[in-house]
Amino acid sequence: QVQLVESGGGLVQPGGSLRLSCAASGILFSIHTMGWYRQAPGKQRELVAAITSGNSTTIADSVKGRFTISRDNAKNTVFLQMNSLKPEDTAVYYCNADRRVIFAHFNYWGQGTQVTVSS
């Protein structure tokens, strides 16, 4: 059974920082691309950042220079360091694990963690 469990969300003031963690189980973590997505009320879910099995990263323009994604394969965990947070970063943040092979696509989601940026 695949599980992705996010933690680290909460309420933070503008300009503050949070570090999200996502612990994975039930998958061979090291060969999956891991991503963080977010969904604000009334908006579509969007990619925030992703990191491949080879540690190549993709960062959304809206958070570039403020957010960093990293992974620890020994701990089956992916992190999202969020600095200089803005009210528009308020959303539910979801962890995603993705793996594509020739004839199959494996994609898994966590339950989400709320991040609220407000004074």
What is the CA-based Rg, rounded?
14 Å
Helix content class? under 10%
Tell me the β content: over 45%
Compute the separation of the termini in Å.
40 Å
Described by strand count, sense and barrel closure, the largest sheet is: 7 strands, mixed
Q: Provide a count of the helices.
A: 0
Mean pLDDT: 97
Strands, count: 11
Model regions low in confidence, pLDDT < 50 over at least 5 residues: none
* N-to-C order of helices and strands: EEEEEEEEEEE
Global structural class: mainly beta
Can you characterise this structure?
The protein is built from no helices and eleven strands. With 119 residues, the chain is mostly beta strands. The termini are far apart. The protein has strands at residues 3-7, 10-12, 18-25, 33-39, 46-51, 57-59, 67-72, 77-82, 91-101, 104-109, 113-117. Strands 2, 4, 5, 6, 9, 10 and 11 form a seven-stranded mixed sheet that branches.
Task: Give a brief rundown of this model.
The chain is an all-beta fold.
Topology:
Layout: E1 3-7, E2 10-12, E3 18-25, E4 33-39, E5 46-51, E6 57-59, E7 67-72, E8 77-82, E9 91-101, E10 104-109, E11 113-117
Parallel strand pairs: 2-11
Antiparallel strand pairs: 1-3, 3-8, 4-5, 4-9, 5-6, 7-8, 9-10, 9-11
What are the main properties of this structure?
globular; mainly beta; 119 residues; 11 strands; 4-stranded antiparallel sheet; 7-stranded mixed sheet; 0% helix
